[in-house]
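Support request, please re-run this one:
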Amino acid sequence: MGSFKSIAVLTTATVALAACGGQSSGDARDFVRVVGSSTVYPFATTVAESVAKSAGVKSPVVESTGTGAGMKLFCAGVGAKHPDVENASRRIKKSEYEECAKNGVKDIVEIQIGLDGIAFASARDGISVPLTVVDVYKALAATPFGKPNMAKTWKDVNPALPATPISIYGPPSTSGTRDALAELILTKGCESDPAMKALKDSNKDAHKKICTTVRTDGVYVEQGENDNLIVQKIAENRNAVGIFGFSFLEENMDKLKGLTMDGIAPSYQTVSDFSYPGARPLYIYVKAAHLKAIKGLKAFVEGFVPMWGKDGVLQGKGMVVAPDDVRAANAEVVRTMKLMDASQLK
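Re-run finished. Output below.
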């Protein structure tokens, strides 16, 4: 996991979190603490900086921990020593929600802030590989369709592709981008085989292992929770392919080019209409018990609404704007701080 990034220095605060779920007021904090997704990080920091100026509160501390690691911190408990907000580049899992509840984090507000895509890219003058979800699965899986992965070049994966060594830089297992890669790309490629699709019903654990476990023989290189480092690596290596949030591709089009997936290029339009296979929603999760106790928390959450629309500040930072009805529904969630319905979680 990469080092944490933050937009403010953690300091000893003076205001106690006295009203937080019955917690004692031994700990004190007068600023908002946010953890989670490296993809959501630049959007959350933009909101944090704006709120600090407009609302006259201390700048929220935003840490890029990865969605999975952030969920563990967020779900560890209620009180000043625990984060108030979790940034997520995929929806909270049922197991994480249950872990939250077990630790007293029972009232959670779920807000979809926008969209993003899992982009596959190479250097501007680098390799051009017209990818499919099946090719990516066969290139990345440790045991594609249940057999050891012996592919060394893209031609080994698909005879129509170049005989260039497979070299892929991507996110670690703690990342929401990695989780979304497993769900949106690898599993779909795996289930192109009817036997693998049937395995999901007969042996769910075996299905997950075969479909989503990534090879560890050096073909896939984890780059920590720092998508900018992946951008740098593939910009310097003509044969390398990188996997990261679409916003990072859009911000670096002078150095990179997006690779097609099933014939669809990653673009603002293809992510927004979900025609691109890697399109996904982005979220923030908020502890309702902290809303009154932590100064500036409500202002931070409300700060997303005017920024997430068409021609909004976050779009300028590379976020894909959610459809009108989705934005309206989530603006209402922000207004009422309605608790999430966990009945549909997986």
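Residues 176-190 form the longest helix (15 residues). Strands lie at 33-36, 61-62, 85-88, 108-123, 168-170, 220-222, 241-245, 256-258, 279-287.
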